């Protein structure tokens, strides 16, 4: 579990684009994936010291590449490696000529040149502007040098340099990962100097840009592609010894060259089919910095061509509450292009970007480490602390130590946490624990080498006895939340189990019942004569049963006076009958009975009502109200918002007021469940039913699992979870509370106001949703929130945002939500 926790931290640290900390795979000099023909040199001393022998740790030929003759200080001999694809380079390893003890040559220092097209060469400089890299001190040890900034190139030249005339020989390996973005250059107005009162001036220029700097930057790459994302406070930097504002490129709205917008052009290696663009942007609005208000992009199929007329425009949701820097994802609608021009419009006086990345056809999931790096993970990964090197290892060693310290902290936290929570879980059947574990596993199926220590969460709470450390510091954590305190005093509150519905995957939290303890008297609903249920049609089907629409003869009389049936006129009473297949497993059978038991205890106008049951003989049935309009998701997705236009065509419509009414009803039903301390665990529009008067009732038929299977995330064929509706603590810690139902309510509200036309986070894959969960947990502003639906009043979006607060205590209660929504309806 410890490992899983760490791995989660590791994975979530890598959201975004290339993470230089993890992009350190050997690129094939040592293992031969770089072919001999792709290694060339300006000269060689003998055939046996040709460039093909410049492979790290190999002893072929005379054991290394050596340029001809004695190297002079002014000489510029080079070894050139063609990596055959654009590559993100983060590390270089060099070694001298050992030749089984006979060699004595090595390079004490070298420079690097690189090229993306093989024609124009650029000299690498570190962040302080130095070009010379310190090399080897003996003939055998490998010296690794981190490249800060990293290089994006296809061709690399290593140029040995020497003070005094001497012979040099080299063996090398390059480390990095493929550059899937395909961006080969961008141009942008030069960043500006900011003079914040009371702070040192912040230089927001592109200081590592490798193109030309005349007036504007063009023809190169720089800060926006170096893989270093800026911090929330743009004055702080990741590097030491650089000026403040270093990580950002920033512009002022009223300066020359920016008339309310900043225009940038992006050129790619070839035509690509673009999915999206991610812009990492600062949002420190207290100092006049905000993400852009909108962006418009033009596309060009070839370099020499006109910009296509049709643009893609995207409006962002401006955020005045969270000052964190964040990635803004701009959908690019699968447009094909070789070059892009984008205009970013100011939302405030300053706009600052630290990274821009592109997701295009060839590379639909650049964020997933396995897919991007799998092919490069051969034999060994990047060098670790075991390598016999000198001072270059210190940062790695420190990294390891920090990791160990963190591990200890986690262990301490876990021990404390266990003292509190494990006591509760001990009594729970094994299955729920297994499930938690698989959830954790699922988010870290790719192995990531621990090179950089996991970033500790910023909350800074010391591990405390109850729920400190990584977990939520709320007091509710230790009180079992999920049970009917008031209703079922004779069950142990702490025994929480998982219940399966008809389809075998519903989850409820209920007091545990052993099979023999569940007897007829636990079911308060009355037994209805089976022969009086007359089949009309099939409504749904699941793994373990079916739902039928039936006519119930004599049901009003059966239920008697004050029965909850809506109207008792002469028409036949229609009911929904959920029936368990005769061949269902014993488990499914028990779960079915337990579901009956739960439902028979719920009594609220906005909760689906259990009318009666047939459990004295097989097949087991439960009879509930029939809701004519089906589930809310289906209902809304087939409708348009009411407008003057909708009268013209035949699409049925709903009004904004209807939507608000629906939201109020759901919150009212949830308020009732919360008052019983009942946790629903799967609130979503697909689990709300609509009758012909637009009354909404919360249900969970389990049928939805089949119809809406893409809304659920299957973990190794076992648990099925609605991750797009789940709070971070439910996914990461397996913790389900009323507060996590509140989170799901926020998502449900969002669905309502998008008229269920879109799945939440539709641009993210399931794995990315889980990574995003890690960002919610870390809360460093990199989490992606659902956008504000165009129909949604801003004050309502604020309610949603509050439902998605990281801290449970910051989320509203259902009672509070209900009151707020009611106010909206009245206005
Ligand atoms: C390295 O790049 C610099 C700058 O473009 C250039 O002046 C120099 O000639 C290059 N050297 C080699 C060996 O390519
Ligand atoms: C960027 O600004 C810094 C600090 O003002 C300055 O030293 C550096 O030369 C500038 N870089 C470029 C490329 O203009
Ligand atoms: C781009 O990719 C999408 C999905 O992969 C595809 O539907 C679309 O046709 C592609 N567009 C072009 C112009 O190739
Ligand atoms: C720049 O921002 C300031 C403050 O928001 C605003 O008053 C001004 O009109 C803006 N200028 C331009 C050119 O957009």
From TrEMBL:
Keywords: ATP-binding, Cell membrane, Disulfide bond, Glycoprotein, Kinase, Membrane, Nucleotide-binding, Osteogenesis, Phosphoprotein, Receptor, Signal, Transferase, Transmembrane, Transmembrane helix, Tyrosine-protein kinase. Binds hydroxyproline-rich sequence motifs in fibrillar, glycosylated collagen, such as the GQOGVMGFO motif, where O stands for hydroxyproline. Interacts with SRC. Interacts (tyrosine phosphorylated) with SHC1. It is found in: Cell membrane. It comes from Oryzias sinensis. It is a single-pass type I membrane protein. It catalyses: L-tyrosyl-[protein] + ATP = O-phospho-L-tyrosyl-[protein] + ADP + H(+). It comes from the Eukaryota. GO terms for biological process: ossification; positive regulation of neuron projection development; positive regulation of phosphatidylinositol 3-kinase/protein kinase B signal transduction; regulation of extracellular matrix disassembly. SMART domains: FA58C (SM00231), TyrKc (SM00219). Its EC number is 2.7.10.1. The lineage of its organism: Eukaryota, Metazoa, Chordata, Craniata, Vertebrata. GO terms for cellular component: plasma membrane; receptor complex. The chain crosses the membrane at residues 396-422. This is Discoidin domain-containing receptor 2. Residues 23-177 form the F5/8 type C domain. Residues 1-16 form the signal peptide.
